Amino acid sequence: MSLIINGVAVAPPADPRVSLLDHLRETLHLTGTKKGCNQGACGACTVLADGERILSCLALAVQYDGRSITTIEGVGQAGALHPLQQAFIDHDGFQCGYCTPGQICSALGMMMEAKRGLPSNVTSDLTAAVTLDRAEVQERMSGNLCRCGAHNGIIDAIRLSVEAAA
């Protein structure tokens, strides 16, 4: 049994009751993923499991046996930021930065959802390709909170990153 964290196979925790978040932070010392509410309400702990966003505080690490988990540490590389990370910098998508890792992982997952054509609550035409306009991005990112009030910069960074990737 092993987890694939940022491309590296790692052993699961000895205790099957350990959350993925606690395993990442306390055992593997990957502290980029943040513990916010520890109840799945804030999104600070968002990581990608096989490209889909999940709340790591609500997931048991053993549930992800053999699956690929990407944390913020696996998004960019030293000296080579992911374009979305650079967009957050360029468009003031953070203030204190606490929620930023979860915001970025969630945005990456959201972009993949849109690419697959998955609608949101505000998608007007369920038969058309999803367009990540401001309303779509705001709806899809509503599970990630920023207590500093950097939401406008976050939404701008995501939208401009989506446009640049198109």
Describe what this molecule looks like in 3D.
The protein is an alpha+beta fold. The protein has 2 domains: 72 residues, Roll (Ubiquitin-like (UB roll)); 83 residues, DNA polymerase, domain 1 (Orthogonal Bundle). Helix content is 33%, strand content 10%. The protein is built from 5 helices and 5 strands; from the N terminus they run E-E-H-E-E-E-H-H-H-H. It has a 5-stranded mixed sheet, covered by helices on one side. A hairpin with a 2-residue loop joins strand 3 and strand 4. Helix 2 packs across helix 5. The radius of gyration is 16 Å and the shape is globular.
Compose a concise summary of this entry.
The protein has 5 helices and 5 strands; from the N terminus they run E-E-H-E-E-E-H-H-H-H. It is of the alpha+beta class and 166 residues long.
Structural class designation: alpha+beta
**Taking strands numbered 1, 2, ... along the chain, how are they ordered across the largest sheet?**
2-1-5-3-4
Major sheet details: 5 strands, mixed
Kindly report the CATH topology of the largest domain: DNA polymerase, domain 1
Percentage of residues in helical conformation: 25-40%
